[in-house]
Amino acid sequence: MTDQVLRGRVLTFFDHPTSLADTDSFGYWEDGAIAVLGGKIDWRGHFSELPERYNALPVTDHRPRLILPGLIDTHAHFAQMGVIGSYGAQLLDWLEQYTFVQETRFDCDDHSGLIASSYFDELILNGVTTSVVYGTSHKNSMDAFFAEADQRQLCMIAGKTLMDRNAPDDLRDTAQSGYDDSKALIERWHGKGRLKYAVTPRFAISCSEAQLELAGTLLKETPDAYLQTHLSENQIEIETTAALFPAARDYLDVYEHYGFLGEKSLFGHCIHLTERERAAMKDSRSVAVFCPTSNLFLGSGLFDYAGMSDEGIRISLASDVGAGTSYSMLTTASEAYKVCQLNHYGLNPLESFYLMTLGNARALSLDHDIGTIEAGTSADLIVLNSIATSAMNIRMEAADSLTDELFILQTLGDDRAISATYVAGNRFK
Ligand SMILES: [Zn+2]
Known about the structure:
Blueprint: E1 4-13, E2 26-37, E3 40-46, E4 59-69, E5 71-77, H1 91-103, H2 109-125, E6 128-134, H3 139-151, E7 155-159, E8 161-162, H4 175-189, E9 195-201, H5 209-221, E10 226-231, H6 235-244, H7 251-257, E11 265-269, H8 275-284, E12 287-290, H9 292-297, H10 305-310, E13 314-317, H11 329-342, H12 349-363, E14 381-384, H13 390-396, H14 402-412, E15 418-423, E16 426-427
Parallel strand pairs: 1-4, 5-6, 6-7, 7-9, 8-9, 9-10, 10-11, 11-12, 12-13
Antiparallel strand pairs: 1-2, 2-3, 4-14, 14-15, 15-16
Helix pairs in contact: 2-3, 3-4, 4-5, 11-14, 12-14, 13-14
The structure holds zinc ion (ZN).
């Protein structure tokens, strides 16, 4: 039974905050209420104005905690749980030494199911209710992933990675088998419950031209599917791609050629884009995915958040677990702040919390369902505790505003600051 009223300090965003003073960009109810019916938000506002029709519902009182929309991660690799925090490599060596070795284990249904389940447990602990996920090249890894997500009623976007070259034998598919397996997964899972499929060529280096061509075919055949891949993360990766695709104008052009650009296309990293690539990202409304902990961990470079934002490129925020080093979107936002500092831009906490919620929902074209607390959207909600640790408690004594509190949450908070996670109205933490 999910029908209930949640009471607490309710915060939701309406638009991208332009500054710390932009109070029109969000709604905040100091003593707020959210009425949940059938897994959806039916009403929200001041508790004192709760309509009588909800009087019979049980009330869970979370005061003085903050209630926000569930957090959204727009790029992660669930199969890399076993290699997160592996020492001493940059992108291509990291893939070879750690990632590919780990991913070969996902040929096994039991292992895939176990890790999928552990991954969702970790997301719930961290208040992440939607994630955009790369599987491995094995079809069964995605069957296990989607089955587990469906059982938990989670809104998840994911796909089997396509990789038919430059990878170990037991991870390589073929252009045709990659197409066939993706097609079967789309038919089985895309649109089932809250699940959506992302066509997932790992990156240009690991895909033949035949495979990229068939990935483009999958997108044409399933126009509402997503596309996710990696782009311009590391200099050696860029040079290797140029050598493999001598006819392409630049890295993005490889993807452009196969029809990958568009508003449901998510390009992970985008650190070293040329002017032409940036213009093409903007014109196609493609999304550049900012993965700060990963970019710092692999020494890939600093994402130009302010520059790309100013140019009108759509941007989302993501963990990129397991090259990313934290499942926490709070920690991810904290590292995003530091990357922006190094680029001489002060990413303010309103903007960070917007990105983790409505901003990422917009990047996924899912703001009609997630990332917000509006009537008719799914009751994916989290409760944040700003005094979860003694260090936070001490710092909170000096907090003088909501924005200060949000900044403390992102800087000092982690899974301990998430006191509750609701998915479609069901409490999982
Ligand atoms: Zn990645």
